[in-house]
Amino acid sequence: MLQASNPEMALYLGRVVNFLFSFFFLAISVFLLLHKGSFLSLTGLLLAASPMVVFVGTVLSPSAPEIYAAIGFWSALVYWFRTKDVSFSVWSFMLFSLFVLIISRALGLLWLGLAFGIIFLFLKNEALDVMRERGRKFWTFSLVVSVGMVLSIFWQLLILPAQSNVPSVALVVTSLKNMVEALGETVGVFGWVDTVMPKWAYAVWTLLFMGFVILTLLKGKIAQVRKLEGMLFIGGFLTFVLAFYIDESTGFLLQGRQVLPMLIAIPLFAAEILNQNRDKISKSLIRKFGYFIIIGVPFIQLVGWFTNAHRAAVGTGGELLFWLHPDWSPVFSWEAWGVTFVLGCILFVLVAKRELQNN
């Protein structure tokens, strides 16, 4: 075991392990989404991985394994939805992702309920086949869910003990208002939840996200559209339950990072529905919307990086060109990381453009 020599090194090592853990889920998710898929299959992940998701993956908190395990689990379900069958290795990855998702924080049972709801909507027949066979897939699933439920309930009782407060209409109204604010935070809020991007950046990302969902609702088969609508309803209801319970039991308001494990499932499944109906969509429409995605996503990611870096370098009120006189700098300097990020965005646009033209 590698042991840190001081608190600063411990924090550094923790963030490195956190990043590698997140990258593991993300890399396998990309592989699963591209297997027998198309460019459309990956667009959902691009919209799921908002600047907030990227930010969370670089800090040390339980949100990172929770959110990236959610990406892994939903991607595995999408793969199952596409292929109608999965190997035991993919099944194992799916269960591992679900287990991490359930135990990452208190209230993990909400994610388990969402998982069952989405499986019922999109994979009911396949899940029933697994239950009838009573093979190792069924028993491993039962074991993971059982252990995860026990640990989640134990953590919930430990962290969020039962309250005796009587629910009020005012609390319900507050929870509904807070849902809207939390959904905005899922795009990106940095620092100690005190640093936001320009308002237009949220508007652009919301337009991309909503446009993608609306396109799916218009071009998907009726049965698939109904399933997506069911997912939206379940997700909205559970978001309210989450907002209400956190406010009632802790006095704090729901934060965007706490909604992300639920929200990222929507573009992933929407993308798969578009992928399965791509013959019904004109190539010109796919390319036009694809260009909006491959240009808009990295641009907003760059805005998110700049906002977060500015906050870390000079605080909330420092000079705009923060890399010139920073109060704090990362390893290799801000210039090096800024150039790397910009080059990464440019490379992404070039590769994505080629894939879009080939598909």
Give a concise summary.
With 359 residues, this protein is mainly α. The chain is 77% helix and 1% strand. It is built from 15 helices and 2 strands.
Describe this entry's structure for a reader:
This protein is 77% helix and 1% strand. The model has no long low-confidence stretch (mean pLDDT 85). The chain has 359 residues and is mainly α. It is globular and about 65 Å long. The chain has 15 helices and two strands. A hairpin with a 4-residue loop joins β1 and β2. A two-stranded antiparallel sheet has the order 1-2.
What characteristics describe this protein?
359 residues, mainly alpha, two-stranded antiparallel sheet, 15 helices, 77% helix, 1% strand, globular
- Identify the overall geometry: globular
Low-confidence stretches: none
Q: Give the strand order of the largest sheet, numbering strands 1, 2, ... along the chain.
A: 1-2
Oligomer: single chain
Mean pLDDT: 85
Major sheet details: 2 strands, antiparallel
Strand content: under 5%
Chain-wise SSE layout:
Elements: H1 7-34, H2 39-48, H3 51-56, H4 63-83, H5 88-103, H6 108-122, H7 124-133, H8 136-159, H9 169-185, E1 189-190, E2 195-196, H10 199-219, H11 222-250, H12 256-263, H13 265-276, H14 283-314, H15 333-358
Antiparallel strand pairs: 1-2
Helix pairs in contact: 1-4, 2-13, 2-14, 4-5, 4-12, 4-13, 5-6, 5-8, 6-11, 9-11, 9-12, 10-13, 10-14, 11-13, 14-15
